[in-house]
Amino acid sequence: MKLWVLRHGEAVPHGSKIDSERELTEHGRNEVLRSAAYLMGQPLTAIYASPYLRAQQSAQIVREALGFEPEIRTVEWLTPESDPDKVAEQLVAVSNVLLVSHNPLVGNLLSYLQHGAGHPSEKVSTAGLAELEHSELLIGSMKLNSLKHP
């Protein structure tokens, strides 16, 4: 089982809009496009994304860059403050999926899947892309194959 986790690209600053409505900057779009290149040829079966605008835009950029036909699956459990344990529950029956989300969830989830609870969060920049792998989803035992920053 492989799992890719992408933090959305750079978004307009806080304060200019409601957090969920913040959109990607031009720089953020370019960041996501560069990260999408790492997914070329990977066996993706689905793209799950937070309902927040910047995550939706990031997921769509990846979808278009890859020519990925299935629709993006918008899920509430990928918002910034979601619990990594709740996200892991959703991933039990899936494999080879891309999650598009936000910090602090992205960093917390990567740490949780690798080490279990109680470990420091991974540092993930905007449009950072992580690849995790294991024979099955086991909390604290997934291997981080790569963490790429555009």
Automatic annotation (TrEMBL):
Pfam families linked: His_Phos_1 (PF00300)
Domain of life, per lineage: Bacteria
CDD domains: HP (cd07040)
Family annotation (Gene3D superfamilies): Phosphoglycerate mutase-like (3.40.50.1240)
Protein name (Swiss-Prot/TrEMBL): Phosphohistidine phosphatase SixA
Organism for this UniProt entry: Pseudomonas atacamensis
High-level lineage: Bacteria, Pseudomonadati, Pseudomonadota, Gammaproteobacteria, Pseudomonadales
Name of the coding gene: sixA
